[in-house]
Amino acid sequence: MPARAHALSQSTNGGYGDFDFDSSFPEPPRLPSSHANANGNARNHFEDIKFGLDDQITGHHMQLNTNVHAENHDAVGRHLLYETALLDTQAFEILDMGQIDELKKEHARLNSRIDAANRKLVLEIKMKDAAQNLNRLYSVGKKDGRPDTPQSPDKDRHSLIGGRKRTSSNNSAGGLIQAEDELSQSIKKVDELNEQIRTMMERRQVVERSLLRHTAAVLADQANKPSEAWLANGHRNLDGDDEVLGHASDGLDEFDGIRDILKGAPAASKSSADVQRMQAEHEQQMINMQKRMQQLNAQLRSVITDASQVRGQEPEPEPHMAPSESLGSSLENTFAVLEANMQIMQQEREKNKTHYARVQDSASETRNLVEQELEDVNNQLHNTLQISSVMEALKDLKEPPQATGHGYQNQVQYLEDSLHTLQKLLQEHNEQLEIAKHASSGIQDAQSAAAKQAKRAEEYETVVAGLWDLFSDEHRSSPVDGASGKDFSLQAFSSRVQNLIDVSNSAKEQQEILRRQIQQQRDLNGKSDMEKDREIQELQTRYEALNSSYDATQQDLAKAVENHLFADQQAQQAQSDMQEVMSQIDELRKTVEAAEARSKALDERHTLILAERDSLGAERDAHKQKLEDVQQEMQDMEGELVRLTTELTMAKAELEGAYGSRKERQKEAGASEAELDALAALKDQEIAQLRREHAEKTKLLEQELQDMMTEFQEMTRESLELEKERGQLENLIDTLRERAEQLEGELSDHQVQWMGVKSPGADGVVKESTSVMVLRQEFKKMMRESRAEGLRLLRAEQEERRRLETEVRKTRQLNSPLGRGPGRPGSLAHNRLNSIASSQGGSYLTNGSTPATSLGSPPATTMNLPNSGLPPSNEALKTQPQPQAT
């Protein structure tokens, strides 16, 4: 098999110059790292289905110079090699031109389809990687219990595969299912594309195998014909020589004696046969040289055309070759055309060099433009960071570097440092925002709880004040108590309640004593049972009234404890809101980290582009060196041609001096021309090989330059995207800063409003220095001012949040305590005052109801308010009777 491949590689110039078999084995595309195997080496479908002769054909440099091969192999080995190759190609069939054209068209079509499928495969692999990242993101979000996307919670995310949207942005399960569907479909598409590429690669191998077998069969058939033609031509030449000698013997010239010697002597006959053989070989070499020169001209013309088409220009017109009948003139014309084509090729090389210089200058200008844009971005970012009020994080930030034209690594490094500083600033702002939100939430909860406590305190104060007034009136009517002139205080009220309890206990004892006395009196005086029962009933009524007032006081204390528990629940709710804000801040930090990762990826891509540019420069230098080698070989071949021409002239002179026959001189000249043709053919083959290598390298360089320009365009687009994302982050920072300032202002306002205000019942043992009426008026005035300020802030906040908050939060804000006025004392306290007054004699009843009615049927709305934890509505408070002023 190696001998067969070697024979095929030596015979690739057999009439298929427009079909390059080496180009049919393209380098497999480099897939992303997601197709890497366990060892980290990238594998794909192309490595598994390479053609069997790929390594031998691509790694073998064809050498058509038979002299070079003759040095490496002896005659027997070379003959055996040729015979083996011919035997191997006996089973191959020769196709007609129609089948060859169809196979070539199919081969080109398969190449284009494979290239398109490879590009589509790369895109699908990128889509699959994106789907994997989304799936991983949603999986992590579901495990942590966080929402899908904190940046845009009210927007629907478009699917990567199109046609579906997420029904709810807050439903993390729906987003995870969608990401899994996208990932499965992407994997399915990648597998389908891989199968299509494998099928097309197999079909292309079949087409290439058919073409190669056809080429081998044609070359084997041509290799069998020269030996037969050589034998036939040899017999004809010998007969012709005899005829020439026979005709020459009829006339007399200066060579008659030599002819006689040649005809009569065996040695002379042998020399004549050698001369004829040499002349025949010389003519054949001249013919072969002319053919090779023509092939070389055609190949040079093809190279010139390809080079001009690469630059998008028309090639130079081909020099005209005048027809000539003589072999020498035709050879001279061919050399003239070859020389003209070489000059045109030299001009094309200079033009290509100029074109590559322009491309390099364009790449340098693009690099400088990118560096300048990065410098502008860094200056803007530096100015933005200088505006920030947090100067501690900016003390290590330096001035942005200037554009030097030597690359933008410094600009990218400064951009990374600036993003790191920006992350620190965002962390500090997030901490401040967390503190402000926590304080604002605590203030709102405290304000709400304080408003509720104030309403209940006012009710308790009214009830206690009424009870105190009753106690004061009762004790003013009693000559025993000397403390009736004291002002109201919790200590005094507690003392009065304790006194009432003592009075109740003493009343019970007196009742028991009276009962015994009545029993004794009944026994003694014989009073009627009706009078005794009436007195006992009166005492029992007074006892029940005292117990009722004591129970009411105990209920008020229980309500105060319930209010305290409700305030604790509000504090826990505020803590949960603070945790939600912390989760949002974490999502924002993740967004900043993603931006940093994209910047790092851009830096890596820039490094890769620089490495590719260096490799392109090295390949360009190698290409120049090869062109110089080709020119040197052309000069060597021209020297060889001059030497052969000189030897031909000397041989002609020797033949003329030895034999003097014109026919012999013509044969000798033909042999020399044949040798020149052989040398020209050898030169054509070598130049054809160099042309193919030059075409491949030129095509590769153009493709790599196009890829580099594409990479530069992608970098420019990504730079614009980063600029846009940076603008969004700046807007977000400005919004957070304004929100923090607003919260600080609200916090200051609330601190001023609640300065000096104490919770009711916190210091119950301290004696108040002002009267109850003065405290009540001051408290009402403060509540009115607080309500007015709260309404103003509420309107401003509603105007600001109207575009951002949902209907639920709007409703909650409208139903907050800041949206309602402070309540008035309920009817419960008034009824309790009336019931207590009725128990003391009925002089303080304002509605004329009995004690049983006042205590037994309070208003339902007022009794449910303490248990619900909400203040009474304004309509209910307006319909309730106002307490009498003390």
From TrEMBL:
This is Uncharacterized protein. Keywords: Coiled coil. Residues 279-306, 360-387, 412-463, 504-654, 687-753 form a coiled coil. Residues 141-159, 800-810 have a biased composition (Basic and acidic residues). InterPro entries: DUF7801, Uds1. Residues 620-756 form the DUF7801 domain. Residues 832-886 have a biased composition (Polar residues). Gene3D superfamilies: 1.10.287.1490. Residues 79-220 form the Up-regulated during septation protein domain. It comes from the Eukaryota. Residues 1-41, 137-180, 309-328, 800-886 are annotated as: Disordered.
